[in-house]
Structures are given as C-alpha cells and as structure tokens.
Amino acid sequence: MKRTRSIRFPRSIVVCSILLLAAQPCSATFPGQQSEWHGFIRHDFSHDGRRCIIVAPKQSAEGTPWVWRARFFGHEPQADIALLKLGFHVAYCDVAQLFGSPTAVKHWNSFYERVTKEFGFAKKPALEGMSRGGLIVYNWTAANPDKVACLYGDAPVCDFKSWPGGNGTNKRSDRAWADCLKAYGLAEEQALAYRGNPIDNLKPLAEAKIPILHVVGAADETVPVAENSAIIEARYKELGGDITVISKPGIGHHPHALKEPKPIVDFIVKHTLNAGKGGSP
C-alpha cells in the first residue's frame, strides 16, 4: 500500500494565507486629498486640528486591522508596505511637537474614536513609535491599555530628559526641549523631576499583557539605548512583561528600521490577527 506524505507549511505562510483568504474590499470612504503611495491610495486630511493620513490596502484583512504610526511618516516604510500588502491599513495623526503630552493623548483619543467608529477600524491597533513617536505610543497606551494589540518602538524616545533634554550622554536639542517644556506646561526644574515618562509608567502595559518590540542601534548617539530602551526592557521584564529588543550593532547616529522587515511584520501580524473589532490579541 502506497503511503501518502503530509506537507507542513511554515507558520508565517499559514498566517499570511489566513489573512489573504479573509480579505475583503475596502468599503470605507475616507476624507481628504487622494494620492498614490507605493502602489496604494493615500488620504491626507485634518482631524481635531491635526494633520492625518490613512493609507488603504487593496483588500482589507478580516477585522480591519491597522498599524498606527507616530513620527516620520514615510521614512523607512518597508514594514508598513508589507503590512498593507497583507490587508492592514496604515494611519498617522501628527502630534510630533507635543512630545506625548496629555494634549497629544487627547488628540489621539479623538482620532481613535473617529477611525474605529466611522471607518470600522479594529478596536486594537498595533502602535508604531519611531524616534520621539515613542513618547506618544507609550503614553497613549498607558492611558488606553485596553485599546492596544501590541507596541513597536523604533529607536524610540522613552524619557524626554534624555532627548531632547540632553540630561545624559547626548547633547540637548534646545529648540525641541523648549517645545517639550511648553507642551507639558513645565519649568525645567519640574521637567527634570517629572515621573510620567514611558520609563516610569509601564505597569498599565504589563497588567494588560501588551507585547513590545524595540528595534535599536546599539551605538545610537541621539537617543542612547542605555537611557531609553534598556531601561524599558529591564523594567518591563521586572513587571513580567513580554518584550523583545532587536539591536543593530556598530551603527551610530540615530538609525531606524530593518532593511528586511520580516521580524517586525511577523510580530505585528501575530498580535493583531485576533484583535479585530474588540477581540483579544
């Protein structure tokens, strides 16, 4: 009797196949000006006085998953493009000059309410915080831990005393520091004593079991790892949190992303696949 061999496919292929099989045409009508972005339709509009962007996939995955990017939209876009191809929407709400302050959190609250209610986006997006975007993704998550599937920090600022404050090994960014103080309504002495930065407020994330991924340059001179991601990693693990840090050795300045974004894409897909429309990740 002839035996039939079974074939096992890699898990990543199975997951992507599930997403594509469940894909549905994008039915939401987005506001603003349309343009082309890497083969997809980009929509630029204003909401709550902030500049906003939504890029729609050709086919939306089941549950309308989305990645919510903070800072430098379009820079090193390879992970965002890969996610668009899998049916994710990519969204952006510009609060860069507010440095993750309570005012920034309020703007993001308003944007979240609109895209989930009017456009039917999933209740739990993946957050992507690049550079100073780390401040808003962490602070928004701490204020809304039940509304986040996972958090990806890309060379993220996790303590404004480090950058732009320059109270560590790096140089102060005078203009950005002044803007940061203004956004929080703090004098410099108050800011140096402030204990509401991401490094100080990880307990809500750990209690909500939010998985975290950081991609950093080990020799980052602008946002030193020792003053930012290393503190997050140590403290989150102490709280029992799930965090992975991918470190790129021997890279100076302030490097971003991975040329081959598969680890980032796999992380986001894994933790958002079951998070659509109010589900649990």
Which key terms come to mind for this protein?
alpha/beta; Rossmann fold; nine-stranded mixed sheet; disordered N terminus; disordered C terminus
Q: Which helices and strands occur, and which strands form pairs?
A:
Blueprint lengths: L10 H11 L2 E2 L7 E5 L2 E8 L2 E7 L2 E2 L5 E5 L7 H8 L3 E5 L8 H16 L8 E5 L2 H11 L6 E5 L19 H11 L3 H6 L9 H5 L4 E6 L11 H10 L4 E6 L13 H11 L9
Parallel strand pairs: 6-7, 6-8, 8-9, 9-10, 10-11
Antiparallel strand pairs: 1-5, 2-3, 3-4, 4-7
Number of domains: 1
Strand content: 15-25%
Distance between the termini: 45 Å
Number of strands: 11
CATH structural fold name: Rossmann fold
Main structural class: alpha/beta
**Radius of gyration from the CA trace?**
19 Å
Report the biggest beta sheet as strand number plus sense, adding barrel if it closes. 9 strands, mixed
Instruction: Name the poorly predicted regions.
Output: 1-10, 12-23, 276-281
What count of helical segments does DSSP give? 9
Instruction: Give the overall average pLDDT.
Output: 89
Architecture per CATH nomenclature, i.e. the level-2 architecture = 3-Layer(aba) Sandwich
Helix content: 25-40%
